[in-house]
Automatic annotation (TrEMBL), chains A, B:
<dbReference type="Pfam" id="PF03551">
    <property type="entry name" value="PadR"/>
</dbReference>
<dbReference type="InterPro" id="IPR036388">
    <property type="entry name" value="WH-like_DNA-bd_sf"/>
</dbReference>
<dbReference type="InterPro" id="IPR036390">
    <property type="entry name" value="WH_DNA-bd_sf"/>
</dbReference>
<dbReference type="InterPro" id="IPR052509">
    <property type="entry name" value="Metal_resp_DNA-bind_regulator"/>
</dbReference>
<protein>
    <submittedName>
        <fullName>PadR family transcriptional regulator</fullName>
    </submittedName>
</protein>
<feature type="domain" description="Transcription regulator PadR N-terminal">
    <location>
        <begin position="15"/>
        <end position="83"/>
    </location>
</feature>
<dbReference type="InterPro" id="IPR005149">
    <property type="entry name" value="Tscrpt_reg_PadR_N"/>
</dbReference>
Length: 110, 110
DNA sequence: ACCAGCTACCTTGCAATGAAAGGTACTGTT
DNA sequence: AACAGTACCTTTCATTGCAAGGTAGCTGGT
């Protein structure tokens, strides 16, 4: 998978979903997501900052036995709503793209 | 559908697929795709230029009864290969994103 | 004490791409 | 002539992912 462009906007959704399941810190998130989708720290940290700034996450620090303190991210209520909206949009979007590429945009629809 | 970012890279695939089915001109393409995905001329024309420059399309002009001449785009062999590669990548990508957001990145996998 | 390697955080500068806004030009109708 | 519709094109901007680099703490080996 070399196509960077596919990822645009989708990483945001992945991050929102994973943090929604349990509080996570950035480094953990990178390792978690990158099992599936190639991703680097330089992508995740700015994304986490932005989503926090936009009110979708709160953060807190916790000590670690194996290194510097970890900054955990927790999904807010607004974040949950945003996540749910994005999931619906993702679903609709994939459906529409598949309409275009599998039926050639010639399929009858509303 | 307000999320612009989802579209990044995917429009390229849509354009390749549609032109692969039959020669199309830009204006027609905009109207065709925008039934499914919001899109504007300012997006399509630069994209068509780029894909032509990269050797995926050839072009020819044809007169029109109802306005200025139309510039038709035709998919090259290289374009067909690229289209097929992109389709496979899109499929894989969607599968992986769904793994992350539906199984929380905890599903066993190669 | 020193160093390597890992964990964990962060930033700057860059490239790609979609969109808004604007421009050109032809045809047909009024 | 004026206008609407078709059809092309460009410039400028915002967003976002990445490479590269920087800071700092902990662990284990020498």
């Amino acid at each position: 998978m070399e196509n960077i462009q596919f990822k645009k906007g989708v990483l945001e959704l992945c991050v929102l979903v994973l943090v929604g399941q349990q509080d996570l810190y950035g480094y953990e998130l990178v390792n978690n997501i990158s099992k599936y989708i190639e991703i680097s720290e330089g992508t995740i940290y700015p994304l986490l900052r932005r989503l926090t700034k936009e009110g979708y996450f709160t953060t807190y620090l916790a000590e670690s036995h194996e290194g510097p303190p970890r900054k955990y991210y927790r999904l807010t209520e607004g974040g949950q709503r945003y996540r749910d909206d994005l999931m619906r949009e993702w679903d609709v979007f994939v459906g529409r793209v598949n309409s275009v590429i599998f039926q050639g945009g010639r399929h009858e629809q509303g």
